[in-house]
Amino acid sequence: MGLNQALDIALSAVNANRIHMEIISSNIANINTTRTAAGGPYRRKVPVFGERPLEFNQALSAAERKLNGGIEVASITEDQTPFSRVFNPGHPDADSEGFVSMPNVSLAKETVDMVYVEKLYEANITVYSTLKTMMQQTLQIQ
Fold first, then answer.
1. How many structural domains compose the chain?
2. 75-83: long-range contacts at Cβ-Cβ below 8 A with a sequence spacing of 24 or more?
3. Per-residue confidence at 60, pLDDT binned at 50, 70, 90?
């Protein structure tokens, strides 16, 4: 594997982490959304990561060396955990018993995920910076 491919893999992880952070932000922003365009409360979004496909020339060399092309967000799914019910009879979305279905978003879980993704992002930036330094040092060899 060349250093350029290693840079591409590190950048793919940085991009995937950025998308994950955007999803977390969306979840937190909608923590109190009880009515969506689709009807019902907001459902927590969860990214599904997958291996990024290689380009044709990379696939040929990868077949010999068992390389992969990095990571990508393959899809974004909705968390199917049940909604919590809160007694609030004055709310416009309350049912006949006075309960409101609230989104299945937990601020504590989203905060933990945010810290985790931040650490992954920092680690991949460090990998990228180290690879860049290695490439610069390689050019300086006499």
1. 1
2. 75/47, 75/48, 75/50, 76/23, 76/45, 76/46, 76/47, 76/48, 77/45, 77/46, 77/48, 78/43, 78/44, 78/45, 78/46, 79/43, 79/44, 79/45, 79/46, 79/104, 80/43, 81/44, 83/40, 83/41
3. low
Task: Show the domain range for 59.
Answer: 3-139
- Report the share of the chain in percent with pLDDT over 90: 65
pTM: 0.82
- Alpha-carbon distance of 24 to 18, in angstroms, equals 10
Rg (CA), the chain: 22
Q: Compute the C-alpha angle 4/10/12, nearest 5°.
A: 105
Looking at the chain, how many residues does it have?
Answer: 142
